[in-house]
Amino acid sequence: MRRTSPGTHLAVLAAAQFTVMLATSIVNVALPQIRDGVGLSGDATTWVVNAYGLAFGALLLAGGRAADLLGRRRVLTVGLGTFGAASAAAGLAASPAVLVTARIVQGIGAAAVAPAALALAVGLHPPGAARGRVLAVWGAVSGAGGAAGVLLGGLLTRAGGWPWIFHTVAAGTLAVLVATLLLVPPAARGAAAGFDLAGTATSALALTALVWALTTARGHGWSDARVLAAFAAAAALGAVFLRVERRAASPLVPPRLFAGGTVAAGNLLMGLFGSVWIALFYFLPLYQQQVLGEDPLTTGIGQLPLAAANMLGAVLAPALVRRVGGRAALVGALLVEAAGMLWLSRIGAGGGYLADVLGPSILVGLGLSVAFVRLTALSVSGVTGADAGLAGGLVNTTRQVGGAVGLAVLATVAGTVTSHAGAHQAQSAALTAGYRTAFALSAAVLLATAALAALLLRRGRAGARDTDPRPARPEDLSRTEDLSLTD
Prior knowledge:
The protein has helices at about 5-25, 30-40, 45-70, 70-90, 95-120, 130-160, 165-185, 195-220, 225-245, 265-290, 295-300, 305-325, 325-345, 355-380, 390-420, 425-455, 475-480. It is an all-alpha fold.
């Protein structure tokens, strides 16, 4: 394998992350066409989205630990192969069972890709400003992937039908897989240790039960017997997981991960932040289509300013951190995003894209990207190279689970408001009332997250000027990715 530059490695790894994020939103605007194409019932249609998110969120910790122990490029390539094959199968699906199963397998592949790619990307540079630039790229492609999914979903659905959504993802994944094999050198494995099978199984089952309960509650209500049983199972399995971890020789989530740096604070804040992120890309396209009357393609094009603002914010994030400090940059970004959400909470049933969507989308995109870069940096700060994959899996898990919680709660509240408003208002006005409430609550969550971030980071210097407050030490460098080593 010929030697290539770190910039080339980063471009390939960022493309892998972009593909995973794309798959979370690309189906959103095509759900009616997918429902009719494979004969899904109304309630089952949501599982085209939920099946992917369920498998993705439940297995991220296992994917991160496997990357550390088995080799990150190896896990990345297996994950890309699984993800791409499942995407192709989804595009060929002619029945609900095949489509939902393919989406589950797609989520399993994504759970391997996301933490392995992040660990490899972080390993390209030691702690410091260079790593800050890596995380800026990560923030740009992560946010842009969500927005681009809405655009591509609308464009492909209109041009060739819903199967081309999945065929295009499969083709893109194949290209990333080939580039990974040709351009990204193998990396060092973590220290020899046993794989915590019991911890992996119990954590995956607990997260599966939790995410299933949250997503099902959106359609069947919080008092549904199945939802309550799933919450009880999640709590019981979570208790078993904690017990297993205390006794395990090589726990899935070792205590050393939280011994230094700002991993705990970063993940807590990322969970709150994620609860708003995923909901944004759910409610905004619905408002554009169901109230403003836009078709899927126009809705997708309307996401471009948000994507552009997101990428701009991520690019500017390192310079902003150097100028005002990491704590101020994070708090300011959360406040800017909250301002955009408050603006969206003023949308009207008789409004328009330019008056109601464009301006707040730009504010949300700028704030979202800077906040994501800072929270990712906090979540990997102080982590040794041997645990980089696990740290990447953990921060992705908190974002996914936070997103599931936030979307379930906000969708339930918005649905309740719409039902009450529908008794004495037109449908478009009732829907708008629900969406306004969801955006207002999202703004409240962001304001609370900003206050919590200011409190948690008040005494420490973590993230004050850099992505990692410690100077790079020889032992740190020896434990990050050595691009000359093999799997």
